[in-house]
Amino acid sequence: MADGSARVTVVGEALVDLLWRVGAREAHxxxxxxxxNVAVGLHRLGRPVTLVTxxxxxxxxxLVRGHLAATGVPVRRAPTAPTSRGRTMVAxxxxxxxxxxxxxxxxSWEPLExxxxxxxxxxxxxxxAVVIEPGATRVLDLCREQRGRGxxxxxxxxxxxxxxxxxxDYRAAAGRLAEAVDVLKASDEDLAWLFPGLGVVAAARELxxxxxxxxxxxxxxxxALAVTGEREVRVGAPAITVKDTVGAGDSxxxxxxxxxxxxxxxxxxxxxxxxVLSRCTAAAALTCTRVGxxxxxxxxxxxxxxxx
Length: 308
Known about the structure:
Blueprint: E1 7-11, E2 15-21, E3 28-32, H1 34-44, E4 49-53, H2 59-71, E5 75-77, E6 89-95, E7 101-106, E8 120-126, H3 135-148, E9 152-156, H4 167-179, E10 183-187, H5 188-194, H6 200-208, E11 214-218, E12 224-227, E13 232-235, H7 248-261, H8 270-288, H9 298-306
Parallel strand pairs: 1-4, 1-8, 2-6, 4-5, 8-9, 9-10, 10-11
Antiparallel strand pairs: 2-3, 6-7, 11-12, 12-13
Helix pairs in contact: 1-7, 7-8
């Protein structure tokens, strides 16, 4: 049964972001990656968490290793295939005048095994780890295996067309992932790219029909949406001054995973869903008021909600 001490295990890439702002002469190297950011966010919320990831024995990998060691997040480094040539994944993030990011990737994701702690209550994955082969197939197999053992399995699509520009193939991969998880999160931009011409609710229901009990959609400045088989619940987003949006979706996901780990089952009641979404949007908003992927602590999040 999930509770306040329940462990979340996050499986996926750790990488180095090269942040390039409009008008800048140089890029700024920042270690991160969506799964790694989610794990850090959970750690700051006081949630027991383990990150299962990999990196290469290269200069970007040394940045990743040092960053993860400094965060205090327990890490299990997955062994990688010789074909990875010891490379660490690198993301090129181009930031516009409003702080919004557009990404390209130098991708490598070839874990040979994914060692999950025995006390895991919730397994989370997503982003590049569920698209880039051969690692994506291993992650999908792990999701099925962990769900079969009664653990709650959660994924964030975090669609990156730069690594899989074929929309049909990406949509098929999203469908396979949806079949293997209990809770699936996506952004409205993710769904618009995967299902052009469909509204956000209809697109969420396309994925929900594949098997998840709950679909959660982030709507940027318009808040968030939860979709179950019976209902739809929306909440707004706090009014803030945005410095940049890097890591906002990951902070949202950390708060969502923290809420799921407190429960034996994903929430379905409207009031409970609204409360969870409000906490998640507050976490994302706090991150947007700071530069880079800088998720809030539990104390910061509680103070923001208490003052709302």
